[in-house]
Amino acid sequence: MTIAAAAVTTFLSGIGLAAPASFAADPTVAPIACPDTFPTAEAVDGVAGVGWTVERGTRPSSFTATVLGRVTDGIAPGVDMIMADLDSPALTRAGGVWAGMSGSPVYAKDGRLIGAVSYTLGMNTSIAGLTPAASLKALLGRQSETSKVVKGTERVAVPARELDALAATREVTEQEAASTGFRRLEIPVTVTGSATAARKALSTSGRGVGGLRVVSGGASGTTSAAAATEVVPGGNFAVSLAYGTWTAAGVGTTTMVCDGKAVGFGHPVLGFGVSANTAHLADAVYVQRDEVNGSYKVANIGGIVGTVTSDRTAGVMATLGEGPKAVPVTSRLTADDGTVTATTTWCTEPYYVDRAAGFHLLSSIATVQGADASGGSAALTTRITGVRGTGTAFTLTRSDHYGAVRFLGEEIAKPVMDTVWALADTSLENARITGVTFSGSVSETVRQYHVTGVAVRKGSSYVTVPKVITAKPGTTVRVRVTLGDLGGFTTKNVVLAVPVPAKTRGWTGSIDLALGSQGLDLSASSYAALLTSLRNAPTNDLYLGELTLENPSTGRVTRSTVSRRLNGEVTPYTRTLRIRVG
């Protein structure tokens, strides 16, 4: 046995692999942790190679690769895309290259790395595009300008001179290859938590990211550390935006591991350049064949193995060891029977902290109620901490009531997400969120009201509101609002006592009624004003009356507000009552 063969055999034994029989005569095609690079210019039609990826579990299996040519500058200026035809029993079962193969290393017969699977020629085909090895290795030390490119090409057109080679595979015709081109492989995103949170993940409020495909939901993602030695070329590699009660993690493949750093995916996850996301192991459950949208890997997210510090055109690079500092999202909710449910999600991507907070809460409420779509009511206090661009810490605390006949969790999660988003994603200051906590109670009893009538006190009784209310200076106008529940089974009356100032005879104006939340006012011109606006924004359980009076002779205006709170949510309602002081 040669020294090279002995070294590879030792490596395989260390990761629990045996060299496949079909490659026994040339063991150097097995996975190599930190391989030499195969020159991109030598990746020409007919070059044979062997790749490694995981179909099921954690153990990589091999596939063959035949280079078909290159697309010059196909991925980015200075970064060619290598075309290859792949083959293996797993690829046959899947109907071609699947989402989740991103980063799968492909080696030449001498053990040098040709590149990593990163593109595919349409749906359900075995023809893949590879990111060249030189660009992948540059991620380790930023050795070339190509590693600094953040925005690459999501679709690659096939030059006319390369169409013959693609058509010769009988996977596609020249016309199909020309019209379709290569597209960047989608990243299957494993989302855990409630089914509703999984369904809505990464698409809320139009802030989704292309290339991420939510494929599964399940148990909460792990928060424990795993051994970095389990990160191997050809093995599963996951990058999470958040993990814990609500987990969102993209699954790909490790390309290489060099000196405590791992490279994977062969294309961006988010493409933000400098990154601080969490690197995880993953356990592939199966590859789902999908004839319509393309096959994809379903995986459970494993332990934390490091920090993704670079997310660029050629792939992602993680420093193995400790995970990054994360924003904690915690909740402590009490059910009708007194049971307390405490949950935590950790978010490492600032761009997603609003969704991490909302989907964590959505999942926690589903856990308390034992159902995703249940109605009910909740009394909740939300506390958001952060640091302003000036370096000053801030805390925003809001308490409110919520109610819904169905989908209580969604009713609560949406305004929470909007509030966190308003604080984190603003041009006013470069602020960051440091924590979000929820505490309160959740009930399956619906407490939600709507306005069924308005009356005004006249003498000892309430009467229909006249076109113009007449009041004397220094007296009180009593406005009665009748509320009914959504089923119409019960009603309750609430009274607003609106004082009329003295010395306002002859003044005219209005009493503006506002019940329930009227939405967030994000028109603030400074961050301090934004915090004040959010702190003072009307809540769902608030009803108020604002009196505005104007002196018709001088134009002088006076305003006053009275308010009360309910033990439940009121659907939004506004009405203006005219008043004259006589």
What is the rounded distance between the termini? 109 Å
CATH superfamily of the largest domain: Trypsin-like serine proteases
**According to CATH, what is the class of the largest domain?**
Mainly Beta
Question: Would you tell me the overall average pLDDT?
Answer: 86
Shape from CA axes? elongated
CATH topology of the largest domain: Thrombin, subunit H
Q: Can you offer a commentary on this structure?
A:
The protein is α+β, with helices and mostly antiparallel strands. It folds into four domains: 3-183, Trypsin-like serine proteases (Thrombin, subunit H); 187-320, no CATH class; 351-443, no CATH class; 448-581, no CATH class. Helices cover 15% and strands 44% of the residues. It contains nine helices and 31 strands. A six-stranded antiparallel barrel has the order 1-2-3-6-5-4. Helix 7 runs antiparallel to helix 8. The longest helix is centred in the middle third of the chain and has 17 residues, at 353-369. The chain is elongated and about 100 Å long. It starts with a helix and ends with a strand. The model is unreliable at 1-27, 143-150 and 202-209 (pLDDT under 50).
